[in-house]
Amino acid sequence: MQDETYEPLAIEKKWQESWESANKFVPVGSDKKFSIVIPPPNVTGSLHMGHALEHSIIDVITRIKRLQGYETLWVPGTDHAGIITQLLVENELSEKGVQKEDIGRENFISKVWEWKEKSGENISTQMRKLGMSCDWSRERFTMDEGLSTAVREVFIKLYEDGLIYKGTRMVNWDTELMSAVSDLEVTLNPEKGKLWSIKYKTEDSFLTISTTRPETLLGDTAVAVNPDDERYKNLIGKTAIVPLVNREVPIIADEYVDPEFGSGCVKITPSHDFNDYEIGEKHKLEFIQCIDLDGKISNEDFIPENLRGKDRFEARKLIVNDLMKLEQLEKEEDYDIQLPKGDRSKSILEPMITEQWFVKTETLAKKAIKAVETEEIKFVPKNWEKTYFEWMYNIQDWCISRQIWWGHRIPAWYDEENNIYVGNSEQEIREKNNLPKETKLRQDEDVLDTWFSSALWPFSTLGWPDETPEFEKFYPTSTLVTGFDIIFFWVARMMMMGLYFTNKVPFSEVYVHALVRDEKGQKMSKSKGNVIDPLILMDEFGADSLRMTLCSMAAQGRDIKLSKQRVEGYRNFITKCAMKFL
Fold this sequence. Notes:
By secondary structure, the protein is α/β, with parallel strands linked by helices. About 35% of the residues lie in helices and about 20% in strands.
């Protein structure tokens, strides 16, 4: 008897398994070539609506190219997601009463790999459920042996070419992770804060300074005013006394100071503020660190004894209280602030001067800028070129080191005099530099930023640095489909690395897709409770219904307002079509 109902889950699973077992997604020979790589989702992640949209668009493009007779390759894969993966495994160990330091680095890394083998394939399984027609036989992982070889090759080459260096600069520091984090891992959270007006003694009076972070006054080395502010012109070149530490500091003039902010006078703490860091460099100020890497006030002698070793926010309360006793707190008022928090740890980040590894990006950026200017690489929609250029023309050196254990360990070794040797292994370094066995070497403890390995994704997944048939045939890739939020952090870096190491663009077109919002047009977030889970929708209505909904609404330049009812409507449409063939 013929079925009278259409059951999408059973039918979709049947055909997905049938296509894969018959190798329908493997490239078939043709004079015309088309290749595309998936933006690798985190191995710890779960399919979210952004993935569902992005992967559906790629799948449509890929299937069309196959139908048009192209030899088509879609490379799937996942990212090792250094910070979040380490946190996940650390939390699992912590539940058993074990800290990573208890078992040591090597054993901890083994635990991460064990987790990856057991639970790290969830996102790939979910992608299959969505019906993705990737060549699953070529699935890659950013910590694969081949991709690790590519990472070392790139690091060594950039170092030898003078484009990677180790230096001391200001970075975003996560006091919970005890690591530098990338700009992408910083979220700015609008919150209700306070603005404190503090009196700094001058030669014959007091100067009122406005700040949202009174605890950093312990590291003040200047007071700044705007050079055109008539109220303070007579004070420029004189000095002020920082309360509590009684440090005499210069009063300087700088255009950075906003005369409308607070009193128009600001304290300058070059060691704990990005803008102050630039001013400190410009005016050759003293750099004094008053907060340690763990977020506690330092134990230096210049710090008042009651503050030493205190948490920075506990110290803030004590400082405000001490200023009140000294009658140097003029006022405290409510103030809206933007708090920088770590995307993974959720802790408030601290600007911190630390020794890190950096990539000199200005040289690498030139070819990548030219590639877009000459339309060797095109953005679709074209307006995203402006966003790309704004960042690339003002590009800063890239901090690539992270103080965690899970990731690509930096291929650098040090002798007892801290001379740096870069190479694939300790043995290679000894042979290359004629170092005797008696010379003790230790490898750098840091790992590379996750974005460093993903920047190589279009060519490392095809076998580079080896001259593989896949690399020869399918590189450069054809199109990249991605979200606007990683144009800076991934797309631009793939362009820079691809052009430098292959002398070819990594792709000729970047399709920037829309953002999926809720039915009211609001951005989805857990805090708002308006997240729509694609896995739940697929279980209820089938993958095709969700894919059709998203693709039908993915007009260029317009965000998608998604609702459950829309997906249900397309399910009904598909059911009517399917019933004709049941």
